[in-house]
Amino acid sequence: MTLHISSMIPDRALDESAVFKAITKVAIDWAAFANQPIQKKRPVLNVVFLLPSQQEKADFEGLRLHSFEKDTQTLRIEASVPAKMVESAYAERYVVAILLDAIDAAGEFFNEQRILFDAAGHLALVDAMAPKEQNAIH
Fold first, then answer.
1. Pairwise CA distance, residues 25 & 27, whole Å
2. Which residue segment(s) compose the domain that 18 sits in?
3. What does the pLDDT look like over 37-91, one tens digit per residue?
4. Which end of the chain has fewer CB atoms < 10 Å from its terminal CB, N or C?
5. DSSP labels, 64-101
């Protein structure tokens, strides 16, 4: 399975938000895995982060399966970003948690469709790039 990360931004002011920066950082970190054999296979999972603004926000909370294109074997899962996460210090952890949940959901979907899918392999890659807690040593 190939994993793609993208976002929908209803307000350009969100370009400088903590969550948009976290999505960008995680996408860049994920690009380091582009040459992994697991990232060169179908099916494709496209995780789209829907950022909220004062004028527009998703009409759901959490994740939802948006669509599946059989010919390209592409599953689109949308993640509604809560307003409290826009400037959160935990934005990167949130983005990684959403990816893990999306991979789990995709695993269930592809299993029901009888499409081979290496959820465990992708979960391991995401876990490898997850931000680790840092403890101060005094």
1. 5
2. 2-127
3. 877 888 999 999 999 988 888 999 999 999 999 999 999 999 999 999 999 999 9
4. C
5. EEEEEETTTTEEEEEEE--GGGTT-TTHHHHHHHHHHH
Cβ(94)–Cβ(88) below 8 Å: yes
Tell me whether residue 97 is in a domain.
Answer: yes
Q: Residue 18: which of 89, 109, 96 has the closest Cα?
A: 89
Residue given tokens 């060169």 in the structure block: 40
Q: Tell me, what amino acid is at 20?
A: F
CA distance 36 to 111: 22
Domain count, the chain: 1
Report yes or no on 132 lying in a domain: no
Determine, yes or no, domain membership for 136.
no
Residue 63 lies in a domain: yes
